[in-house]
Design brief:
This protein has 185 residues and is mainly beta. It contains one helix and twelve strands; from the N terminus they run H-E-E-E-E-E-E-E-E-E-E-E-E. The protein binds zinc ion (ZN). Residues 31, 48, 50, 52, 135 line the site of zinc ion.
């Protein structure tokens, strides 16, 4: 009996330790909102209107909340391939934008749920500076291509509304803007 109890206690301990080590870490960023340093580690023309997530070409880019695809675009001279989503929350609209994609895997008008793969991370567009990363932007008006550095108008720091890694088991509050990271972690 004693042995069984001890085994059970050890199992509980092991589960706790493993559970802890499996909790996901936030994905690495290379340029935060408002930063004056670019993904290429050089000075920007102005402050950064989004967050740049590090990654490798082909990494899944996922919707940060439930929404509808309002635009897919390709601007080789600047933001490259972008997907723009609209999120309706309690009668108010928020917008998220995902740029420098290698591939776009959705279409305008599609309904997407949080965590849906909408594209693959890349380095498209001259603005990526040849560095594979995801430019993620949160807007209070429809953002269809990335705002130019220094133009923070109608943008908000996505980190303010980000609550963690996407977890398919978790229930999210539909009445609040709760973003999860736009890349897997
Ligand atoms: Zn960026």
């Amino acid at each position: 009996m004693m042995i069984r109890l001890r085994v059970m206690r050890e199992l509980v301990l092991i589960t706790a330790v493993v559970g802890c080590s499996l909790s996901p870490l936030p994905p690495p960023t290379i340029s935060t909102y408002g930063s004056e340093i670019g993904a290429n580690a050089k000075a920007r023309h102005g402050r950064h209107p989004g967050i740049d997530f590090a990654g490798t070409i082909g990494d899944p880019v996922i919707a940060a909340a439930d929404g509808v695809v309002i635009d897919v675009s390709d601007s080789p001279a600047s933001s490259g391939k972008c997907v723009a989503l609209r999120h309706g929350i309690r009668g108010r609209a928020w917008f998220t934008l995902y740029c420098h994609l290698d591939r776009i895997l959705t279409n305008r008008g599609n309904l997407v749920t949080r965590g849906t793969k909408i594209g693959e991370l890349g380095a498209s567009g001259a603005g990526a500076g040849g560095i594979a990363h995801l430019h993620f932007q949160l807007c209070t008006r429809a953002c269809t291509t990335a705002s130019f550095d220094g133009n923070l108008e109608h943008t908000v720091d996505p980190a303010t509304y980000t609550i963690g890694c996407f977890d398919p088991e978790r229930t999210y509050n539909p009445d609040a803007l709760q973003l999860t990271y736009p890349v897997e972690c």
